[in-house]
Amino acid sequence: MKNTLFLILTAFFLFLAIYFYWGMSKAESQLVVYEEKVTSLEEQVRRYTHRPNVDSLTPISPVTPQVDTSPDDTKVTPPESAAFEDELGSLSNGDVQRLKRKGLKNPEADLMNDLMRKQKSLLTTSGTMGGTMAIRDIRILNDRHALAYFEDGHNGGHLLLRYSVENGNISWTRLDSYTI
């Protein structure tokens, strides 16, 4: 009786060992197949998304229009408004000359510095969750208007300003403001 019980237990443990070994080898073979699939997909992603790193602070040159070589020889030209986006926030030569005649030595820098000094009086929105509202980006639009982006790290918005310059003194007027 002891021998029979011993043989049954031995057969049961041998069956379990074979069963678990078979399951482990099946799982390993599936793992190899899945790793090959993942490697293949990663290679496809690399192929389709490989682009050189672009620093977000460096200006990107405008895309040149493609010439259509169809039989009618029609050329594709970008709309005039496409160039405006690149010029947004830069003063024209005429604006610079007018502001220099009004007493500013370096108009764009002088305007930005003055706005940064006077921002507390122009920002009416208060910071939330311990943040302090401050102007983060300024675009001088022309010889009378500027656009500023403000935020406190949690909330932000835009501010449209009018400025006037007399004898080198700059005064700011808030025209419109909205939060994002």
From TrEMBL:
Biased composition (Polar residues): 55-69
Coiled coil, from the record: 24-51
Superkingdom assignment: Bacteria
Keywords linked to the UniProt accession: Coiled coil
Region of interest: Disordered: 52-77
Name this polypeptide is given: DUF2939 domain-containing protein
